[in-house]
Amino acid sequence: MGKEIWVYIDQFKGKALAASWESLAAAKTLAGPLGGSVVALALGPGAQAQAGEAFHFGADAAMWGDDPTLADFRPEAYGLTVAKLAKEKAPQLVIIPATTRGRDLAAMVSAELGCGAAADATGLEVKDGTLRITRPVYTGKLFSVVTFTGGETNVVSLRPRAFPMPEADASKSGSPTQVQSAVAEGDLKSKVTGYAAAEGGVSLMDAKIIVSGGRGVANNPALTPPAEITDEKQKEVWKAQQGFALIRELAGVLKAAVGASRAAVDAGYIPYPNQVGQTGKVVSPDLYIACAISGAIQHQAGMRTSKNILAINKDSEAPIFGLARFGVVSDMHKIVPALTAELKKRLGR
User: Fold this and answer.
1) 235 and 94, same domain (yes or no)
2) Residue 314's domain is classified under what CATH number?
């Protein structure tokens, strides 16, 4: 085919995300079998530096743009720009990391191009000259293999941490090409008026280890809420906060991210950005520790591809044990503090 394979470099506050370099490495494995070169595309703050950095991770060429309309991520500005460039240059494939921003971007670019799209891919291979894309379906219980039938540009988004992170080679360099935004500020219907700070800590999408809590974090009969809390719901939330304090302490020792099930989020125990599952974030850490999580299929859809799963639950029949590699049938309020104490000793923290 001989056409280019593009990789969009997702960034936050001017720094490229690891998922971008994972996507670039995945594209390199396709360049030989499909034919063509790998081109990185960086947009927004720090785009020129990111485009230059892309050569360290194997890009054959790079493009960058940092017009004022690209100062903040807006799908209409970024999507129209990527689509306009793709229409002009006709790459055979546009690869986009399936991050929160990347999911929006992939959908808009494919819609603008009217082309095929495969979302949240966890595997790529070329067989008999055809790209075969593996992606989870039915909440992760099965995997489907997708192929494109058209010869036009197609779009694929790749699940973060599903592909290996490449080593940087600072000896590799190149001269990136500047590109322009496809839309003027006056034509954009959305405006960014400000930001609200979210809870700090390790990002769920990038975390190698995640410690998550479920509805059972509130089930600690040994705790007595303060006398001033008389409402039963508030007593439950208070107990849950103490339970999540144990989870956060363990996460801190492991330098891990804190996650939660939808039941815990819906109950008001923890904010939505921490939710893992079908309606939350989809994660693939090296280790996922599920504390007092029953393991409903909706939750499994968000963490099924974790490399190792440790489940801690009082109910030996909880569905999470069917997915876990390691299981502890016990009360998390006893196990988590003991595990934290032992890890502090062994890790010197």
Assistant:
1) no
2) 3.40.50.1220
**∠ CA 322-325-328 to the nearest 5 degrees?**
80
In angstroms, the CA 71 to CA 193 distance is 12
Give pLDDT tens digits for 259-316: 999 999 999 999 999 999 989 999 999 999 999 999 999 999 999 999 999 999 999 9
pLDDT 10s digits, 12-51? 888 999 999 999 999 999 999 998 899 999 999 999 999 9
Q: Would you call 328 helix, strand, or coil by DSSP?
A: strand
Do 159 and 279 have their domain in common?
A: no
Which sign, positive or negative, has the C-alpha torsion 23, 280, 108, 52?
negative
pLDDT for 91? 96
Secondary structure of residue 124 in the 3-state scheme: strand
Q: 303-307: long-range contacts at Cβ-Cβ below 8 A with a sequence spacing of 24 or more?
A: 303/210, 303/212, 303/259, 303/276, 303/277, 304/136, 304/140, 304/141, 305/122, 305/136, 305/140, 305/159, 305/162, 306/210
Positive or negative: CA dihedral 142, 148, 149, 154: positive
Domain count, the chain: 2
Strand, coil or helix: what is 42? strand
Question: CA 198 to CA 194: how far, in whole Å?
Answer: 13
pTM of the predicted protein model: 0.85
For residue 52, the cross-strand partners are: none
The answer to whether position 193 is within a domain reads no
Query: Residue 42: which residues within 8 A CB-CB, separation 6 or more?
Result: 9, 11, 16, 48, 50, 51, 54, 62, 63, 64, 65, 176
Q: Residue 247 sits in which domain range? A: 209-347
Strand partners, 39: 6, 61
For position 1, what pLDDT does the model report? Answer: 41
